[in-house]
Amino acid sequence: MQPKAIIAALALASGLAQAQNPIIHDQFTADPTARVFDGRVYLYPSHDIPPVEKLEGWFCMPDYHVFSSADLVRWTDHGVILRQEDVPWGDPEAYSMWAPDCVERGGKYYFYFPDAPRGQKSFGVGVAVADKPEGPFTPMDKPIEGLMGIDPCVLVDDDGKSYIYWAGMGIRGAELDSTMAALATPPAVMEGLPEGFKEGPFAFKRQGKYYLTFPWVRKKNGTETLAYVMSDNPLGPWEFKGLIMEEHPNGCWTNHHSIVEIDGQWYIFYHRNDYSPKFDKSRSARIDYLEFEPDGTIALVKPTNRGVGVADPYDRLQIDRGVSAEGKVEYLDKDNPFDGWYIRLKKGEKVEFPRVNFGGCAPSNMVARVRTKEGARIKVNGLTMDVPKLEEWRTLRAEIFGRALADADTLTVACTRGTIDIDWMQFFRDETEQAGTLNGVYFTAPQGFFSLPDRQGFIRRWHVLEPISMNIRTNVIFTDSYLREVFGHSHFGGQQTLIPTDGQTVEVGDSVQLAWHSVESTGSNVQLYRFAGLTGRPVYGVLFWAVTVIDCPEALENVRLAAGSNSASMWWIDGEEVLILSGDRRMVMDDGMSARLTLTPGRHTIRAAVINGPGMSNFCARFIDENGAPVTHYLICEQ
Description:
The chain contains 4 helices and 43 strands.
């Protein structure tokens, strides 16, 4: 069973990146064209990379990715769908794969892209075809004949006719024929557009009116706005209506966009150089809401950092992406902008993060990554968190009481003492309020970057490897020496160093591929027997490996790791063996305890191996103090 299959079997829903701008956080994505296919949004941007030597200081675009989302919040990268080397007619070293588009006709998906033809200085527009919106796409042997330019856009009209628009000596358009790869009418200059440089057309239809939108430089030596014209006909003549978006305040020269309706709400996708403040040829895709006036004209869009969609406060909230005219937003690392931002709040300043959903539950804990040179106090919707002096970034946890957040749809964070830097926040549901909401019987998907030990101190979040088959007929052989020999054998690469991710695979034995799964146990007892069955692997005669990472905000002194397992197991912390449970064991809470440990502030890796012949495998683990009470003042991390 593949990694995705266990997720389906357990009925899990994982929490990923939050809804905020920019929307893609691990690469540059410019010129975003959004399309809706079968109820899912697909995003076709161009892909900026650092310029090669011959293009120093200029745009450099070698390929295309496609991304998709069901909610405009969580985006899946489907990978590269077309490279410049794949285009039969294109120059494989031109790095000129600029703004694309994709439409569906007759069950086929047609991807339109500009490229530089071999041996020419002009641009052509090619077509690649696929059976699915995420590809794979196969490019046609030749570009569209009679079309020279960049930034293609295709409008499929209500009567089934299709029209293509592009930039080249102004903005031009023509009807496409039934093949979707040839012009049915001669190219025509779109009349009625304002004077000045224009490119990147995007056309759509609303309430019987045609809209042609485009980046436009309206001022001498200016930068691009987004503007539009309207018409009763798909190829004009057009009437100029005004701006959709003004020039970027940070001086980014380009803008490029698409406009789409989803469930009755209109959105604009566009770009800015958020992750490249010193070089505006490396852009990042954004989304904001778009509204229409009663007469059909478009209301001016004010770009936001918050973006769109409803955020899950039980995942990490990038509070710096909120709405604030008071706090100062800075890069976490100016040399690596992809690390993101933080907000600095002085006494009396606040930031608001709208459109959050606590689901009617009262959170029991709040975690924040903060720093403050003098100590500070913040209030989150009236709930207070005191922060001691912290010269470096630290992750702090505070218990919170009352239902002040249960029905909140906006998070308001105010500084009431000192000055504080805030990177992100995350909340945790009260266990009594979330009882009965779990989808899986034995496991759920981890929610948020962090989780907490349960009230008895048990660690429920683990990365578990699909079981390794072993020839074990009886458990009486599990002596200390046998276990050290088996656990010390190298079954897979990184056995004592790897911190896996969900779906990551390793090769075991004779080319057997096993996958890691990130799970949250619904009880203190992690049911390995059930896990094995859900992954389609053997349930008897098996060896399991499990890994988790904890983050201690302060030193945990004189604690013990207390564990139980069915059958034998061994436990390591930061690579050092701390506990072995040998023999034919039955699962008993705190069946074995390590020597006293001191865990320093910061992250620590806990690793376990559990082996069993016949019988149902499982384990539990927690930290206890000198009096046997559970230790809970730490976080359990995703990685």
